[in-house]
Design a protein that fits this description.
Pfam families: HD
Number of helices: 14
Radius of gyration: 24 Å
Shape: globular
Protein name: HD domain-containing protein
Number of strands: 9
Keywords: Hydrolase
Structural class: alpha+beta
Domain HD: 253-394
Strand order of the largest sheet: 3-4-5-7-6
GO molecular function: hydrolase activity
Helix content: 40-55%
Largest sheet: 5 strands, mixed, barrel
Length: 404
Amino acid sequence: MDSYFYNIIPIRITITEEERTKILEQYPTPNLPASEEHFQMDREAHGSFVEIRVLLNDYQVQQTKTNKQYLKIRFSNNAGSLNAKMWDNQGAVERTLPILEQHSVFDISAKVEEFNGFKSLTIERISPCTEEINPFSLLPYTQQDMESLTVELFSYLYELQGAYRELSLSAMNRFWKQFSIRPAAKGFHHNYLGGLLKHTVGLMRFARYILKFEENHFKATMKLIQVVEKAHKKELWNAIEKDEKQFVWKDTIDHLYQMFYGMMQHKDTTPNYDLLITSILFHDIGKLLEYDHAGKTFDGFSFLYPTATDESTSIRKQAGITMDELGVMIGHIPYGVLLLTKLIEIENLTFSLEEIHQLSHCILCHHGLPEWGSAVRSPLTVEGYLIHIVDYLDSRYENTEAIK
């Protein structure tokens, strides 16, 4: 891929093969599942036996028409949901209920059944998985090249100057393993493993286009809004002509112009590129703490709160992508500022008081409006408007991509 956003934004990185190798050695990408770990029910024949590892979603004890109990269970893996049942052979239900309550990842042996065109699993054996898991074998993940995304991210970070570069690399040196696997959302956009990495790179692509590839950041932003207008017109025409009713850009154009009007208040201010790119890196980094899923570690909590006890995380049942029961109390926006300020302190980095507030403000305002989760009433800097606009565009554009 050498362009982005309807082929408008060029992707140009200047990295030698030696530099690429060095980046991937220092910041390795996750191990993706082998082909045999991609179990898909619709590819299995009725009557076949399978042995697979799955996540537990939910379960119920139900009754047959002859008043015999059985377990109705819904599992999932990286291909989606898997419906299953377990008959009460020799007390199997009572034996199985305690382990379902205590664990979330299971190895099962089952028979594939088909009834009225729908396939399900009849479980013959189930046991909790006690070894370390690869979350990519259990949860959906980006289909884009994670090595290329990684190299692109660090090529942008290496361009930064002074304390901005030190701060950004310090964050990645400390949190890279978790940053590289995290989703960026539970449902709306980038809601899969690797989504946070992909979304962060996406914002940087927009920011570089606005500040590096166009001569004027207002003209660049106007061009992007015009692209949205054109894309929305195409959506409307497809709905009329082809009955395709996907309206990604519905109700977005007025908001983009509203933000453009706000940005005009700062027409005499030159945006700080290093500040904006660093803010983008941190804008969603709090999602390391806000979301939970199988394979998540709690490094962010122990970093921010080193003296806290952690009994609750040690007994956590982790399965699909959910809101972290602790993280949801604070949210990724405040966490982003907490991580930013603590890293500046422990790394003894020199920023002016104004720069620290500008970085923090970008994180706090990147949702744009209080009703959308922004921690301030509206952006107060040109970088604040820009980070919201590029976040807004990337989060919606992602839903138009064929390969996510």
